[in-house]
From TrEMBL:
Subcellular location: Cell membrane; Membrane
GO-annotated cellular components: plasma membrane
Name assigned to this protein: Phosphate transport system permease protein
Alphabetized GO MF terms: phosphate transmembrane transporter activity
InterPro entries attached to this UniProt entry: MetI-like, MetI-like_sf, Phosphate_PstC
Length: 316
């Protein structure tokens, strides 16, 4: 019997050794394969971006063979249909900038005030409850915001502004601002929370009130993150599509009147792609010229956000 027990123990030890060897081999394989797999995934992302840029450049170049560059970027008339088609992009740029400006007028003060409250005044319990609720706004589909602007905000504004057209740039601008409040509030609150408590305690020890500490110590110290959140929010507003497509109409007039219908660059792309633009026509290639302009706008805004973050970053 003792010999049988000894043999069983030896067999169990051999199985354990074999199992450990298999586990070690599997780990070695994973350690070898995973970096290569991750590298392939990263390369696919980069190649996709390069492919998008090359597509935009080639199709935009084809458009500028037919429409002069200067005429496109200085023209105030956009009539893509008809015999004497005209392709001036200024009406679309005006619509995009006006809607983004209105959105930032709504989002920056409300988002910044919310961030100051969450960072400096709210208790930990209140912060944990309010911040997720605020961020729920970011998860609502933009088409829902579009119908909210069309069916609720516009009729409400028309009761105060009689001259407001049923489709206008004001109501989608306001709703876009509501949509990006969570972005401004969340990023700004993160920047303020990263300011060391010792700076607050030092200011309080010198006799400053909590309001003075918030505005004269915390906000300046977190300025790089706050400004970066503003720039990213502007970039988000410039690229918004569904809200302006539904609520701002499709008027291509070059105007800065907030009560009138205006069209943004994204809304123009949606309109033309949803219509009968035959492939190879000037109207078809105008989509890529507008898309390239939009791409440059958002790229510049993102680069500006990164520059501001690096330039004004405070290290403690």
């Amino acid at each position: 019997m003792p010999e049988v027990t000894t043999n069983v123990k030896k067999a169990n030890v051999r199985e354990l050794i074999k199992k450990n060897k298999n586990t070690v081999n599997m780990h070695k394989i994973l350690e070898t394969v995973m970096p290569k797999l991750l590298l392939v995934i990263a390369i696919i992302s980069v190649l996709t971006t390069i492919g998008i840029i090359l597509t935009l450049i080639t199709e935009t170049f084809e458009f500028f063979k037919r429409v002069p560059f200067v005429e496109f970027y200085t023209g105030t008339v956009l009539k893509p249909l008809g015999e004497n088609a005209q392709f001036g992009i200024l009406p679309l740029i005006a619509g995009t900038l006006m809607s983004s400006l209105i959105a930032m007028c709504v989002a920056i003060p409300i988002g910044l005030m919310s961030a100051v409250y969450l960072s400096e005044y709210a208790s930990e319990r209140v912060r944990k409850a309010l911040k997720p609720i605020l961020e729920v706004l970011a998860g609502i589909p933009t088409i829902v915001y579009g119908f909210f602007a069309l069916t609720f905000v516009t009729p409400l504004l028309r009761s105060f502004i009689p001259g407001l057209e049923p489709s206008n740039i004001l109501s989608p601008g306001i709703v876009m601002g509501i949509m990006i409040i969570p972005m401004v509030a969340s990023l700004s609150e993160d920047a303020m929370s990263s300011v060391p408590k010792s700076m607050r305690e030092g200011a309080l020890a010198l006799g400053a009130t909590k309001l003075e500490v918030s505005w004269k110590v915390v906000v300046p110290a977190a300025m790089s993150g706050i400004i970066a959140s503003f720039v990213l929010a502007i970039s988000r507003a410039i690229g918004e599509t569904m809200i302006v497509t539904i609520a701002s109409g499709s008027s291509k007039n070059f105007t800065f009147d907030l009560t009138q219908s205006m069209q943004t660059m994204t809304a123009y792309i949606v309109e033309v792609t949803g219509g009968d633009a035959p492939a190879g026509s000037t109207l078809y290639y105008s989509l890529y010229a507008v898309a390239m302009t939009l791409f440059v706008f958002t790229l510049v805004m993102n680069m500006l956000a990164q520059y501001i973050s690096r330039k004004f970053r405070e290290e403690y």
